[in-house]
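Deliverable D2.4 — example input (structure tokens):
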């Protein structure tokens, strides 16, 4: 994961945010193409990293993995034009990659689609909705059967280098700057010099600025260097 984070980092960026959808909402009998078309302008994942809200179409680089999607043969319709760029794709990998390029224009994106789902057999907690099949696919109505244990689920996960990390890192910087480290003698008795701490603090602030875009609030511009 460290090497992957380094591969997604450039222009001084060293940190990535984690996102996931557990499970990835696929309707029973529908393809990946159908599922992504219903998502329109948003992926159904949630930001796992605390401290900010992810914004659609704002990402520098990302790596996305989708598990539990059956790969289907493309339907051939000679002479018929595809209604969208997604329909023109030949494989699930191409569909996901094209969708990410549309959702995050200008971002560097890598994607992988795996057929093997994420297993959810015991001791995995059964906190799933009754609308899920044993394979983790969505139904229109709950199953009548009393045995509704979900055995596997489709999952999408991602690591992103995105502007949301400006909020996360700058918030951490402000919290650390507010501390009076001179009151913590045990901290420096461990071998850390106050000057080293101040230098690390400024490096953290500079790292946060690497994720700032013109969409971000100018919350850091009014900060003074009194610390």
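Example output (designed residues):
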């Amino acid at each position: 994961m460290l090497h992957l984070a380094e591969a997604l980092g450039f222009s001084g960026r060293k940190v990535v945010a984690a996102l996931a959808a557990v499970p990835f909402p696929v309707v029973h009998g529908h393809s990946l193409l159908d599922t992504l078309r219903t998502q329109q302008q948003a992926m159904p994942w949630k930001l796992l990293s605390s401290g900010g809200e992810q914004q659609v179409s704002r990402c520098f680089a990302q790596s996305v993995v989708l598990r539990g999607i059956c790969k289907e043969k493309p339907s051939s319709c000679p002479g018929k034009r595809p209604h969208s760029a997604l329909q023109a794709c030949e494989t699930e990998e191409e569909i996901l990659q094209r969708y990410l390029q549309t959702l995050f224009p200008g971002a560097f994106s890598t994607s992988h689609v795996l057929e093997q789902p994420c297993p959810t057999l015991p001791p995995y907690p059964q906190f799933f909705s009754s609308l899920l099949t044993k394979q983790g696919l969505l139904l229109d109505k709950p199953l009548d059967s009393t045995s509704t244990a979900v055995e596997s689920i489709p999952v999408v996960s991602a690591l992103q280098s995105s502007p949301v990390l400006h909020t996360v890192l700058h918030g951490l910087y402000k919290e650390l700057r507010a501390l009076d480290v001179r009151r913590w003698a045990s901290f420096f008795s461990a071998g850390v010099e106050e000057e080293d701490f101040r230098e690390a603090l400024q490096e953290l602030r500079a790292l946060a600025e690497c994720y700032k875009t013109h969409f971000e609030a100018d919350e850091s511009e009014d900060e003074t260097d009194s610390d």
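Residues 165-210 form one domain.
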